[in-house]
From TrEMBL:
It is found in: Cell membrane. PANTHER family: CORA FAMILY METAL ION TRANSPORTER (EUROFUNG) (PTHR46494:SF1). This is Magnesium and cobalt transport protein CorA. It holds the Pfam family CorA. InterPro entries: CorA_cytoplasmic_dom, CorA_TM1_TM2, MgTranspt_CorA/ZnTranspt_ZntB.
Length: 363
């Protein structure tokens, strides 16, 4: 099987795999911060070392060896030893510890520092004005000649399933840290596709409710909240285009030429996601404007009805007001049929006014 076929197979298997969080104590004998520390030689996992320092020593003794160290939300003090051991740049270390970074790729000597924003869909029984739709996290990846250090922030985005699937493909891992970096990028973008499809279902439901003639209970707060969540998703996905383009085309980066070409496939998937997010954002704008227009039309219809009834009521008010002034000398004041005449005049006038409003659609 070709290398690109292997890479795509790993991505498919990772999507179907059961989400296993290796930061769980039962799966992580090295502690809650250090998710895992593994040495690979020729793409094959070696027996677990006793410490990170020993892992580095074992990897250095083999031409095709490298260390993959996984961390979860390390503190500055905990990450200081790792940074010194691998010679990581202080600026990249600061970004990795404090998180909340934009997707980017920076090169410090022969070390590549990549930042990916992870996104997961938050299941909810009903979308409300306060519902959380997407939850974001971060994965930082340091790739050097003989090591990969992944730093994960957030409660989701575990790389455990991806690591296990990569280990079942030793030919891929034999390509070294570049293969791991590609697998992480592909994993993140594939999750974008999954989340985009789920968010689109929510948008379709809101759109159906807004334009349904039988349902006028659409809440603009729900639409606005969904738009905010889409914007958060957009901030995670759209800025990743430039870093992926650099990984795919920059010959000066430490990414091997064999792996560099496959970043173009990831960039193509990301382009599909960004197009869908942009379209969803624009659609939500249209839905929100349509809903506000419907509200305005409904208010205008109510005001027309109120105005029409006020005009009808004005007729008996005027007639009764005239005959309620109690002047001694008034026309028809002592006429025998004056009362019936006044009532009849009110009824006929109100009838024709009501008929006119009815024809014009005000009532």
């Amino acid at each position: 099987m070709s290398m690109v076929g292997n890479l795509r197979k790993v991505a498919r298997l990772a999507r179907r795999a059961r989400r296993v969080d290796l930061s769980h104590p039962a799966r992580s004998p090295l502690g809650s911060t250090v998710v895992n520390c593994v040495v690979y030689r020729g793409g094959v996992r070696q027996e677990g070392p006793a410490s990170v320092h020993e892992a580095v020593r074992l990897a250095a003794g083999h031409r095709d060896g490298f260390v993959w160290l996984g961390l979860h939300e390390p503190a500055a003090e905990q990450f200081a030893d790792v940074a010194e051991l691998f010679g990581l740049h202080p600026l990249a270390v600061e970004d990795a510890v404090h998180a909340h970074q934009r997707p980017k790729v920076e090169q410090y000597g022969d070390v590549l520092f990549s930042v990916f924003k992870t996104v997961t869909y938050v299941e909810h029984a009903e979308l409300t004005a306060t519902s959380e739709v997407v939850d974001t996290g971060e994965i930082m990846v340091f790739t050097g000649p003989r090591f990969v250090v992944t730093v994960r922030h957030g409660s989701h985005g575990s790389l455990g399933p991806l690591r296990e699937e990569l280990e079942s493909q030793p030919r891929l891992l034999a390509e070294g840290p570049s293969a791991v970096l590609h697998a992480v990028a592909d994993h993140v973008v594939d999750e974008f596709l999954t989340v985009a499809a789920a968010v689109q279902d929510d948008i379709d439901a809101v759109e159906t409710q807004v334009f349904s003639p039988a349902d006028r209970t659409a809440d603009p707060g729900r639409i606005y909240q969904l738009k905010r969540e889409v914007l958060e998703f957009k901030r995670a996905a759209v800025p990743l285009a430039q870093p992926l383009a650099r990984l795919a085309s920059d010959p000066s980066s430490p990414v091997t030429p064999e792996i560099r070409a496959y970043f173009r496939d990831v960039a193509d998937h990301l382009a599909r996601v960004t197009e869908q997010i942009t379209a969803s954002d624009a659609l939500l704008d249209s839905v929100l404007q349509a809903h506000l227009a419907q509200v305005t039309v409904a208010q205008n219809e109510d005001m027309r009805k109120i105005t029409a009834w006020a005009a009808i009521i004005a007729v008996p008010t005027m007639v009764c007001g005239v005959y309620g002034m109690n002047f001694e000398h008034m026309p028809e004041l002592h006429w025998r049929y004056g009362y019936a005449y006044a009532i009849g005049l009110i009824v006929v006038a109100c009838f024709f006014i009501h008929r006119g409003f009815k024809r014009n659609g005000w009532l």
